[in-house]
Amino acid sequence: MPDALEGIRVLDVGGGVAAGYATKLLADMGADVVKVEAPGGDPTRGRGPFPKGQPDPEASGLFLYLNTNKRGAVVDLAAASGQRTLERLAGWADLLVHDVHPTAMAAHGLDWERLHAANPRLVMTSIAPFGLTGPRATWKATDLVLWNAGGVATLNGDPQHPELPPLKAFGDQAAFQAGLNAAIPSLAALFARLGSGVGEHVEVSAQEAVAAILELTFEFWPYCGLVASRLGAKPIQPLCFMECRDGWIFVCCVEEHQWKQFVEIMGNPEWAQMDIFETRIARGANFDALQIFLQEWCATQSVQELYEAAQAHRVPFAPVSTMGDLVASPHLKTRGFFATLAHPTAGEITMPGAPYRLSATPWRIRRPAPTLGQHTAGVLAMVGVDASDAGAGA
Amino acid sequence: MTRRAPLEGIRVADFTWVWAGPHCTLQLAHLGAEVIRVESATRLCVTRLLPPYAKFEPGPNRSGYFNQYNQGKKSLTLDLKRPEALAVAKRLCAASDVVVENFAAGVMDRMGLGWDVLHGLRRDLVMIALSGYGATGPESTNVSYGPAQVPLSGMSSVTGYRGHPPMHVGVSYGDPTGGLHGAVAVLAALLHRARTGQGQYIDLSQWETSMAVLPEALMRFTMTGAAPERDGNRDPHMAPHGVWQAAGDEQRWVAIAVEDDAGFARLATLMGQPQLARDPRFVTLAARKRHEEALEELVAAWAAGEDADALVERLQGAGIAAFVSARNRDLAEDPHLRERGFPVTLEHPEVGAMMHLGVPWRMSASDSRVRRAAPCLGQDTDQVLRDVCGYGDDEIAAMRTAGTLA
H or E segment at B289? Predict the structure, then answer.
């Protein structure tokens, strides 16, 4: 079977998760992606996790995940010769995705006017913390800073402990959101190019990508003049964590009929008939009291049994899965979600697999992530660059 | 030169509700697809029934939640429980390039709008189902909502303060993450279709897309046998790295991330304690990580005496990554975002001119933007039935009388 993006040529000039993930999405659907790395290697090679916890640039889990199906070439973009190589590669490519900071783009040869002149069909996607324009375009950010700048961190934290700070989500979530928001217009620009024949420059603001997922929070200001915070509880309840006797469960009754089912599962306790719990909005307003009743009952239950009972009643509870639960899940096993592949230095590794299943053009892993410089010679030969002039740091 | 929308001429029949599906079709609307929501007045989209309502007055067209994630779309009302409505839905699907739905697995089949039926009507159709658990597997019939995907995916077990219970992430993260992955898959399928003429069916599980963005935690387990501990805002490769309360208003917090030793030296100078950069407890990242609690106490004491906005300006001026922990009002009034045109104010028939957040990307040649405010319930029913499905005015009037369009 063919791949959805077969024949589409992509350059990943990433230094982090955002460009790496955007181009991984494309590589895993069949695009021919070349990852351009500096002589010292991509920073994610230093991030891990590592087998046995020992740092090894050829065995970083994050790098191995983000770069499946890509070829790797070392090009020193700090050198003039490396920038000439990049220009040749841009002539080969349909799409270039990067997350080099705006203040450093020119120094890396990422000059849109020049690359566009060299290849009018090129689509170039620039991912920046705060975009390429505006008074804060040169500001610096990390994932923590972007999760706060986009307004999601302020919503998360312990309402009972206002002295504890706004809390980030685990991992590089701002970067993943930016990467997803880069893949979408990149593909759209390639689609537009089928008709127009010309490429274009796409820019993505990671701050905006985070703010775009604020759920109903942002609108509280324009619609009602309310400043939202974690202290303004979810308007509907229960939608909360409860501790069972053997772990944690997420109690989720978004609709009224789901609450009625849950009350039945609990054996129709008298307290559940109180007026203050009558509607989901009332339960939200009286959550302090609700929480006490619910916690007392849940503490006697097992996570798996309560989860199954709720699902049998069509109520969307979920266990608070541990990593071990997920890897062992019979459902995920049946679907073949986790991908296991052999890597020349890291050995056999297991990672998250297909995020979607396309019936005619299946997602698949054709090769593991490249070792540092693994495909430099072939990639350079492909664009007619002499290895000694490549800025390959060799 | 006229700017064309990338998806101009692409029509999407949108059977989605709540957030994951609408977030998928929102991206397609930003790109210029004609997105037609199939809704029903007899079973309203959950988000039409959620606050915030404009000026606190409830109403199906007044919810900020619905109006944020359905910008640029049209609304057709059909009571799909009626067989004659089903015929209309089929005509709409046959006239569409893409069908998007996020009901529980099996619901579209039971309604008579499954892939086999629709693919029979149109061979080059692209159809995507965004369900909680996916279309196959022993738990595929489970019900799932976005908020439950955060714990289900494992995100909650590794998110939280050190030594405290698992936490959510503040939003129903499985929804937008599923929706964005869905948009990626649809665009890839459209590119494939444009080159081969072949349509296809896409099975997306929100559970799986939520794990796709959690590789570090999952792979730490598969590579070492141990999952990461909940560790608040800390990072193994940076210190100090956290969010600290500034002076004044108790909700003013500042996120600060110091990326290397040189950055720490600049921070120490800003703090008026340059000697900290030479202190053996803090001189290297390894040392700072070993003495992280003491380091965080020093930063907390310093930040508590500073104005949040001024502090961020000074930190950024010194090349240190920092930002206030932005609240909704901060984002709405942010001069940077406003100058970039990210908040969009469009006239809505019921709530008037209202601000929403727009498109997180800009395209230099293509026309990508919010094209209109979210639709009122059934706002486009007549136009869609006439221009897309080819019904005459008499037929439409008869359907309305019969209750088909409720």
Answer: helix B285-290
